[in-house]
């Protein structure tokens, strides 16, 4: 039978695995200086903010997990391995990524982390574990601005790549329109000027 601490450890280890994997991928992306050199100026600082946030999160998760004792590190290692296998297609470490694909993949991965924190927050509330619930809420609040920033930068990165990689005419102002259309899709009641 699963104890309360076992359940808490499992949920914390799952979350730590998610963010550890994303952190590894982002660190790899930051090493791809050739790709980042041609990226919009906002990309590298954004990747560094993501890296810093995920580093803090994984450290916090490790410390919180220790409070509940048990064989946590072995569990985290096992979960990280399983999770890495599941997302191997998301981050291919062999070839370099186009910046737009990096951003798209980061958005996808951070969305998974955000929903995982929503689940962890719900779990913490359900079992009356305020430390877990409040940590999950804080970490979710850290991720949502990063997701918004990626959505602001991605259209410009795509347009820049299309212009750089092709000999046919490209509307280099399309990034602004794409961003406006994307934000309108998420919030149709807001008028954009």
Describe this structure in words.
The protein is mostly helical and 193 residues long. Helix content is 77%, strand content 0%. It is built from seven helices and no strands. It has helices at residues 4-30, 33-37, 43-66, 72-86, 99-126, 130-165, 174-186. Helix 1 crosses helix 4 (72-86). The longest helix has 36 residues, at 130-165. The mean pLDDT is 86.
From N to C, what is the helix and strand string?
HHHHHHH
What Rg, in angstroms, do the CA atoms define? Answer: 19 Å
Structural class: mainly alpha
- Name the beta content range: under 5%
Q: Quick one: biggest sheet?
A: none
Low-confidence stretches: none
Distance between the termini: 58 Å
Beta strands, count:
0
Characterize the overall form. elongated
User: What share of residues is helical?
Assistant: over 70%
Average pLDDT over all residues: 86
Q: How many helices in DSSP terms?
A: 7
Summarize the structure.
77% of the residues lie in helices and 0% in strands. It contains 7 helices and no strands.
Name some characteristics of this structure.
7 helices, 193 residues, single chain, mainly alpha
Task: Indicate the topology.
Elements: H1 4-30, H2 33-37, H3 43-66, H4 72-86, H5 99-126, H6 130-165, H7 174-186
Helix pairs in contact: 1-3, 1-4, 1-5, 3-6, 5-6, 6-7
């Amino acid at each position: 039978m699963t104890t309360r601490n076992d359940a808490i450890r499992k949920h914390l280890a799952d979350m730590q695995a998610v963010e550890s994997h994303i952190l590894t991928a982002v660190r790899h992306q930051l090493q791809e200086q050739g790709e980042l050199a041609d990226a919009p100026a906002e990309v590298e600082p954004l990747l560094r903010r993501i890296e810093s946030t995920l580093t803090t999160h994984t450290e916090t998760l490790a410390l919180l997990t220790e409070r509940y004792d048990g064989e946590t590190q072995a569990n985290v290692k096992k979960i990280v391995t399983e999770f890495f296998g599941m997302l191997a297609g998301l981050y291919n470490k062999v070839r370099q990524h186009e910046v737009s694909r990096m951003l798209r993949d980061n958005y996808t991965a951070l969305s998974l982390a955000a929903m995982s924190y929503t689940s962890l927050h719900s779990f913490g509330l359900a079992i009356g574990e305020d430390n877990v619930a409040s940590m999950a809420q804080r970490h979710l609040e850290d991720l949502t601005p990063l997701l918004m920033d990626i959505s602001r930068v991605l259209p410009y990165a795509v347009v820049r790549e299309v212009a750089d990689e092709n000999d046919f005419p490209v509307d280099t102002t399309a990034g602004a329109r794409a961003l406006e259309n994307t934000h309108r899709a998420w919030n149709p009641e807001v008028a954009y000027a």
